[in-house]
Every structure is written in structure tokens, then in C-alpha cells.
Amino acid sequence: MSGKWLRRLAASVAIVSAPATAQAQEIKFWTLSFDNPKMAKAFETIIHDFEAKNPGVTVQLENRGTDEHKSALRVAGGSDQAPDIYFMWAGLGLGGEFIKSGLALPMDKYYAQYKWDDEFIAPALSFSKQYSGGRYGLPFTFRGEAVYYNKALFEKAGISAPPTSYDDFVAAAEKLAKAGVPAFTFGGTVNWHVMRLMDEILEVQCGPEKHDALMAMKVNWADEPCATKSFEEMHKWTSKYFLKPFMGIDNNQAFNLFLAGRAAMMLEGNWLVGQLRNANKLADYGLFPFPGASRLYGFGEYNYISTKSKNPDIAAKFLDYLESTPVQQANVDLFGGPANVNKNVKSTSTEPLDLAWTKIFGQFNDVFVNGDQAFPLDVTTEYFRVINEVASDRLDPKAAAGELQKFIAARK
Fold it and tell me: Nearest CA to 339 among 363, 305, 303?
């Protein structure tokens, strides 16, 4: 047997007997920047463990600020640089924008494969069923929004207990003003921050049924007295009870002013508990639902698989792992705490603000979503503009509802 033939035989045996290696697959995951460093660390661990369980798979996480994230996704929709998975708020306005543009992959087969309908709470799942053509996105977190208040500033103004009616709320703001304390701090450079107050006032002034009809554009804003009353009420708050100037700062700057005791309240979500914890300020603040609203203000956050993903099956597998009971339970207070979207996960926190959220979530049966998630994108942009014009004293609040309706009528 020649040496040349033996070398060929040895090479063939080596190829046959060599262990099979997993095919390299990369998943790009675009999400928001983490305010909480513990969340960043948790994601690092989750990704590391998933990669260890799936040899050959790497998950590349990219973080951006809110507005930068939206812009990057809009650019990605027309390029070949889109992620495999992307974070976006649920609802017709924000999540719906990318579904309509064709960036979101229908996920019906993954819902069936991983039995997600059996694993997640119904309110969080409802957003995946809003569209024709399939199920889109997977619940990531469910967020409630309520009023955080500085206990010392309330005491300074002689407010002995959180208000429970809207009239009492206005009276509390007046007491704060007389004590030299602005009631609220908001960041006006990000349109959605001031919008929160308008959304809540609409809920109080119009009631759930009329509020929903307005946001669905099924009734005429100009013909509804409650819509005009809402803009007038909002202007009262922005002109009399806001920390100023507010139109030149963003939400993060507003939060820092809140920490510094420059204003008594912020209208924020349950994520703020983590931020207050990081600042060692938990004991200084209390929490109450927006007075007069019969529904909880809140929204769902989702992760979507992109239609441009080359590895959608692996992307779905990673999402299933991320939202699994063991992973979520290990990080329960980071991923929603008392409002975790996984129905099998239980919060273990004894922190008073977390317990207050548990009470709030148990208090309300229904939820209404933020305006920028209820409206289509173009109407959201006009809603922002009208709110900002009223807040900046450039538009008479009595004319604001008609101004918004003009835009809605023109687009139809």
C-alpha cells in the first residue's frame, strides 16, 4: 500500500470521525438603553447562559435611547441592516407602525410551538391580537403608570394623604403652589412625557367609553365638550403647576430635578422604583393612581422578530428563553415585579413601593394605553404638536380639539 494512498485514507478517516460543529448563527437584538445597571447585568447573564445552551449561537445586543431606537428601526426597515429581534411598545401606534411597514414577522407558529398563550397574562397577550394577518410580537413587560410623590414636600404643603378625587388633586396642586413647590416636573423635549398628563386628564374628563372613541377617531374631537375641557385642564396644570422651564429639558433631566426635591410629583411607570432604588431614595417617595381615573394607565412592551431575520427560529427560541419562568423568576424585580407578564412568576419584594404597585394592579380591572400607542403615527405627531402648542401658550386650549380634528379629517 503506497504512502500516498495511506495519507489520503488517513485524511478521509479524520474528516469522517471529526466531531460535528454547530453552524454559527448570530442574532442581533436591538433594545433600549438600560437605566438600571442591574438590568444590563441581568441581560449579560441571560445571553451568556443562552449561548452556552446553544453552541454556535451568539446574541449581539445593541442599546439606544428611545428616540434614537425608533429612528434606527425606521432606517433599518429600508436597508439590509435590520436586527433579528427588536423591542417596541405594543399597540396600534408604535408597534403598529413597524407591522404596517412590513418589518414585523407574524409569529403564529411560534405561539403554537412554545404554547405562549398558556404562559402569559391575558392583558399582555391582547396586544398581539390587534392586527389582521397574524400574531405579532411577544410580551416583554407590562407597565403601569401612576403618580410618585415626595413625602416631605407633601408634608410641607400640608397635604396629609394622597388625593383620591380629581378635584382633591387640583386642590393639592394649589396647596403646593402656595408653599412655593411646583406640583410636577416633566421633560418637554420628548413629546411623550407631557402627553401622559393629557392622556390621564382625557380619561378623567371624558370617561372610558368616550375616551376610547376619541382615540379611535370614531367621534369628532371638536364636537366633544370633554375634549375641549381636557385641553383647558391640561393648560391649567402646565401654566400654574409645572416646574419651569420644562420645554427645554428631557425626561431624564426631569427625573434628576425630582430627586433634587425641585418638584413634588412625577407621572411615571413602575420602572421608576428601580431608578429610585439605585439613587437610594426609595424611602422618600410614595405612590398613588391618578385621581379620578377608573382605569389604570399603562401599556405593553413587546419584542418582535424582524422579517429581515435570517434566523427567525433561533430568534424565537431566544425570546422563549428570555421570557421563561426560571429566567423571569430569577430576575423578577427587574422584569415587571408585581406585573410580570409570565403568569407563573411571583414577586418576592417587600419594598413599600413594590407593594403599592401590587395594590394598584389589583385595584383596576381595565387598562387604557398611552396616546402614542393608541393613535397611528401621523396622528400621534399631530397630537404631540397640539399639546406642545397649548403647553407653550401658542394655542388657545379652547381651539385645540378643533385643531386636532382638522388634521384627522384631512387624513381621511
Answer: 363
* Closest-CA residue to 85 (of 25, 22, 44, 138): 138
Give the residue with greater pLDDT, 121 vs 264: 264
Q: Do domains 25-142+299-352 and 144-297+367-411 have the same CATH topology?
A: yes
Residues 6+ apart with CB under 8 A from 35: 271, 274, 275, 278
Mean pLDDT confidence for 92-112: 91
Helix axis angle, 377-391 to 397-411, nearest 10°? 160
Is the pLDDT at 18 greater than 70, yes or no? no
Question: What value, to the nearest 5°, has the Cα angle with vertex 314 and ends 311 and 317?
Answer: 150
Give rounded-to-5 percent helix, strand, coil for the chain: 50, 15, 30
Query: What does each C-alpha distance from 345 to 248, 311, 329, 335 come to in angstroms?
Result: 41, 29, 5, 10
pTM of the model: 0.77
Q: How far apart are CA 202 and CA 161, in angstroms?
A: 24
Predicted confidence (pLDDT) at residue 22 exceeds the cutoff of 50:
no
Among 343, 305, 359, which residue's Cα sits nearest to residue 124?
Answer: 343
Residue 396's SS3 state is: coil
Measure the CA dihedral 180/183/185/188, to 10°: -110
Cβ(139)–Cβ(125) below 8 Å = yes
Range with lowest mean pLDDT among 84-98, 158-172, 258-272, 314-328: 84-98
Question: Is 322 strand, coil or helix?
Answer: helix
* CATH code for the domain defined by 144-297+367-411: 3.40.190.10
The domain locations on the chain are 25-142+299-352, 144-297+367-411
The 10s digit of each residue's pLDDT in 251-308 is 999 999 999 999 999 999 998 998 999 899 999 999 999 999 999 998 889 999 999 9
What is d(CA 140, CA 69) in angstroms, rounded to the nearest whole number? 17
CATH class given for the domain over 25-142+299-352: alpha beta
